[in-house]
Amino acid sequence: MTEENKRNQPWRLTEGFLIGGGILVAGLLLQLTVGQVRWELFAWPVNIIALGILMLAILVMFLLRSRVYVFRFLCSQAAAVPALVYASVLTVVMGLTRQHEGGTWLADMLTFWPFVLVYTYIVVILGLVILKQLTGLVRKRRSSFSVLSSLFLHVGLFIAITTATLGNADMQRLQMWTTNNPEMANLFSDTEAFHQYERFAMDEQGRRHELPLAIELKRFIMEVYDDSITPKRYASEVMLYSKATQRKYAATIDVNKPVEVDGWKIYQKDYRLTEAGDACQISILELVSDPWLPWVYAGIFMMLAGALLLLIKKPK
Q: Could you give the 3-state DSSP secondary structure of residue 263?
């Protein structure tokens, strides 16, 4: 590197690691003072507003990069490489640690401030790099497979990370207990939880949610092995009522074979057998709604497209 370049680009990998380390320290201080990240505060429409503010901030930083060196530095590999190293280490720790909601710092990494801030830092770097690449394309007015591949990879990663993170606040995972015996409610104290046509489900905190669909359990299927004890298969034959389409659908919900209706995936989670026998079987269903998931898939497909472009040679 020439003396002129050293003067124009005084920061290198060392400064990149120091900035990343500072972000980790800031995250730890937040974890100690305000507690874990509360994603429920970012539920719609707060998450889309936060995304808009983030993208506006990235645009402002890009426009000011010629005046503010730190913004220009964030467009460089010297900033990106340390950020990816920190993110990789935290992700490996996440993979090696059993994750569960409400766990300790490393056991609930999605609410761990250092983890969230490092990935936010990566998103900022990605946004600046994308704008830099787009500006280069506009100025040159021509492109190559390598340039387009890099752009697709960066845009896809930006979309996947932001939508997976902000969409986490809108994801719902609920549990519904159903029975095909209307008189069964007399066996339980909370009779409201059991109806022949069930349209309420419970979250992990025990709060009831009214759904835009209803489920009627027609028949619970139980198949066992020769020992008559170990279940070989259990499933639910149901009738689904859609509020949006005003239609009903017959379906069989098997373990690992969910049914999707009105944006909800319905899984066969568990069952209960009471002392009253087969007439009092309870099917426990899990309902999952993740409205941002299509955007996550879009980002992944863009990254795959970028990888595919790397394999394509420009024709002579």
A: coil
